[in-house]
Amino acid sequence: MKSPGSSNAVPLVLAELRRGEAGVVDGLAPIGLGTTTEERDSMLARLRDLGFIPGARCEVIARMWFGGDPIAVRVGGSTFALRRVEAAAVHITRALPLAAGATA
Amino acid sequence: MDAAVNLRPLRIALIGVPNCGKTALFNRLTGSRQKVANYPGVTVERREGERAAADGRTQQVLDLPGTYSLKPTTLDEAITRDVLLGRVAGAPAPELVVCVVDAVHLPIGLRLALEVKSLGLPMVLALNRMDVAKRRNVKIDVARLSAELGVPVLPTIAVRRGGADALIEALEPVHWLQHRSIAAPAWSEPSADDAEQRQRDLRGVLEAVGYRAPAENQWFERLDAVLLNPFSGLLILIAVLFVMFQAVFSWAVAPMDLIKEGMAVFGAWTAAHLPEGQVASLLVNGVIGGAGAVLVFLPQIVILFLFILALEDSGYLPRAAYLLDRLMGGVGLSGRAFIPLLSSFACAIPGIMAARTIPSWRDRLTTIMIAPLMTCSARLPVYTLLIGALIPAKSIGVFNLQGVVMFVLYVAGIVAAVAVAYVLKHFSGARSYSPLMLELPDYQWPHLGNLLLGLWERVKIFLSRVGGIILALMIVLWFLSSYPAPPPDATGPAIQYSFAGSLGQLLEYVFAPIGFNWQISIALVPGLAAREVAVSALGTVYSMSAAGNDVSGQLSPVIASTWSLATACSLLAWYVFAPQCLSTLAVVKRETNSWRYPIIMAAYLFALAYVASFITYRAVAAWA
Questions:
Q1: Angstrom distance (rounded) from CA B64 to CA B123
Q2: CATH number of B162's domain
Q3: B41 lies in some domain
Q4: In the listed set B182, B209, B236, which residue is the last one of a domain according to the structure?
Q5: If interface means Cβ-Cβ distance under 8 Å, which residues of chain A face chain B?
């Protein structure tokens, strides 16, 4: 049951950001990565280790063809290349691109 | 504390996330007093060095593989964790850990430092790249950081002479004697709550020391805008690869000729000074010929690795892997496979060894399996001989026919490699996903000292391991080609009567359908030592005198007048695929820790070679 005006949108993921767009990480959700639960958990833990934690700002600085596979994303002062499936596990809220960075 | 314990060298280990400058710091601490080996049972590099403390006592420094966390995702990272925990046979737990953290990218390094600290080992933190941090407006309260962590924090600038002095002072044994213990540290896998707590702790420390993300560097942004753009990025990558190729093949010509001349002179001198006989033959043909076969490729290896190390140091290589990831993934290769495959164009052996950087075992194995299909420079003497002898030097439009054939041979190798990778991807069992999640580090000017040290290391490995194998094989094959000696009334070339000759005559039945005559069949036996040996082996079979170093020039007219075009083309096709290089197979055995893979490799390559030769021979014979 939805009250009028509430959003029923599909959560926005990092994979959908265009070049130059930024977002704030809400959390991670597993999306068909790996073949075992252990593998999936391991990859999510690694994403966290790299800095994709709730509250972290991330900005896409480059996208390859085929719908962004991979993308280059800046988070916590470092830059990483993520494949589309990996970026699709990062849920974000859109944020405005800033000139200066914030605390990690 | 036990006096004997104090006399043992202090065991120091360097740990840090990739790209933090840990290896540069390791170089600064140990200089050239380093050696590279393997951890027992695995092909993970064990980089160890020694340094002298101020009082002259030795300290052992271990450069652990870079890792983002003590919860490993690759074999490298598992080794790092296991060494810290003292779980690796022959590598006792370190007594002091130097956690190297890049000041510019403090959060990611500090997160690992907090994990390492929880192990309870004595620890210092080396806060590296303080100079860059200052330029990027990153301010860190070092004293506060030390207080928050409870460990000494030493600012370092690893690439500057004297930049590690503060750290060196802190490594003085006097600070650590009372901490030496024999209890192994304990670690258990962190739960989700532990991980979150650690994140909170991290955020607290970062706030306390006043860390702010680095100011954007305009040059980096501009470079990335061009180098990561799909179109301009790939174009520039192709240009870079082209320049590398040109450099490797054209700059190396002069030094290679020099080496060939040198070996020929040395061989002639040896032959002149020894009584004629088996010993002289062994030394000149077996040993000097063997050493020459290895040394002649040294200029190419040096130039190739100079480029690769410079590109690596500059931060460009991960960006190339980013650009190629999807394209290579489509044929079942990791984006990181492109450096090993590129190296294989000079020689598959360093290429296969470079495949260690590929985290996924299956991707790594695929890369190793197809590396020999990259046209290595050892094939060039064979190609040059055959093309020069039998392909007419005509022009087709603006293209030289001989050049076109050479190009076709190169392309055939690449196409075959892609096809084999594709087949491997689709016809082998369950596929687990191997993540990319690759860091694109800051750009930096390559540091000459680090480049030279890295180059020296590669050269040493090539010379000692490869040289050892090739030399041994050349001697064995010399033996097989010289014994039994021909009877006094022999009419044919001596080699016909030897073991190699008998083997070749048997092989003639196998090779007749693909157009190889008995001379080729025999020459392919010693030709197993290394690809370029085929030329001198043919020279031996055709009884050319080995005095001049231009066997090729003497052979050319003989081949041109006695071989058919179909035979020559068939042999060319054979050389595109056939593993006429036992050293490559030996290295594959080392790198995969098993006999299975080199045997599979030899089998599939010989099979492909036979089929390709068969088709080529029949087609050219029918058409020409």
A1: 15
A2: 3.40.50.300
A3: yes
A4: B209
A5: 33-36, 39, 42-43, 45-51, 53, 61-62, 64-66, 69-70, 72, 76-83, 85-86, 99-104
CB proximity B325 to A under 8 Å: yes
**Six-digit token string for B407:** 């190009």
Please name each of the domains of chain A with its CATH number. Answer: 14-95 (2.30.30.90)
Indicate which of B191, B209, B322 best probes the interface with A, i.e. most A CBs within 10 Å of its own CB.
B322
Distances B569 to B12, B173, B620 between C-alpha atoms, Å = 58, 68, 8
Does residue B299 sit within a domain? no
- Which residues on A lie below 8 Å from B78 (Cβ)? none
Of B158, B184, B209, which marks where a domain is finished? B209
Residues of B in contact with A19 (CB under 8 A): none
User: Does residue B505 lie in a domain region?
Assistant: yes
H or E element at residue B537: helix B533-541
Q: Could you report the per-residue pLDDT of B253-311, keeping only the tens digit for each? A: 888 888 888 888 888 888 888 887 777 777 777 777 767 767 777 888 888 889 888 99
Give the tokens for residue B394: 């005509």
Angstrom distance (rounded) from CA B424 to CA B421: 5
Q: Which domain covers residue B61, as residue numbers? A: 3-209
| ipTM summary value | 0.88
Give the angle subtended at the CA of B371 by the CAs of B585 and B308, to the nearest 5°.
115
CB of B354 closer than 8 Å to CB of B307: no
A9 Cα to chain B: minimum distance (Å): 28
Q: How close A8 gets to chain B, by Cα (Å)?
A: 29
**Smallest CA–CA separation between A27 and chain B, in Å?**
12
Q: Which of B186-195, B481-490, B522-531 has the highest mean pLDDT?
A: B522-531
Please report whether residue B371 resides in a domain: no
